[in-house]
Design goal:
single chain, about 220 residues, alpha/beta, TIM Barrel, eight-stranded parallel β-sheet, 10 helices, 8 strands, globular, binds SN-glycerol-3-phosphate
Length: about 220
Amino acid sequence: MITFNKPLIINLKNYSEISGDNSIRIVEDAKNARLMNHADIVVAPPPSSILALSKIAIPIVSQHVDDAAIGATTGFIVPEIVKSYGAVGSIINHSEHKIEYLQIKSLVKRLRDLEMVSIVCAADLDEVEKTSRLSPDFLAIEPPELIGKGVAVSKANPSIVRNSVKVVKRVSPAVKVICGAGIVDKYDVEKAIELGAEGILISSGIVKSSSWYDKILELASVLK
Ligand code: G3P
């Protein structure tokens, strides 16, 4: 089964900057940055583009999956189908797409059975504690109030990163903690690593930067 080592996971969200062919350009930039510095760079594009983007040699994860059955279901994002399109894992329970605890539980297991990587998001320490019991591969701590604000969680709220690492290592030591929200430069990434994070989940700091390639290279250089 694939795993990520200190990943830089780039969530493209549904930003207009990555619409149409721009999604191919940003994933090409991520691939070239990955080739250049060998960091584990991973992209989470809108699910509708997974099939096209997974042809580019870089790991792709879904931004979300639903706990809907494969077969006669309509409009859901189904793990088996995204896997068939080339995704190697999925984000679950992002604060912009929350789901019920029992669905998270079921999806972590389902992804594991499919040999796909699970990245479960948590908004606070309470959620960190509950969801780490499910033993996802990665637990991403992202305080929603800092998302997209350009002020890094690792600087604005270092204790939530440090405490998330403590809680996870007590509850489920194999789970790797990553962090996100407001990360914009390599110093934010350095600080996150210093606090015990083992990777970064990022969106606007890259998608809205003037050079995708340069920004990805800058941030990934700290994660090699
Ligand atoms: O999934 C990543 C995310 O929610 C953080 O967003 O824009 O603060 O990097 P951003």
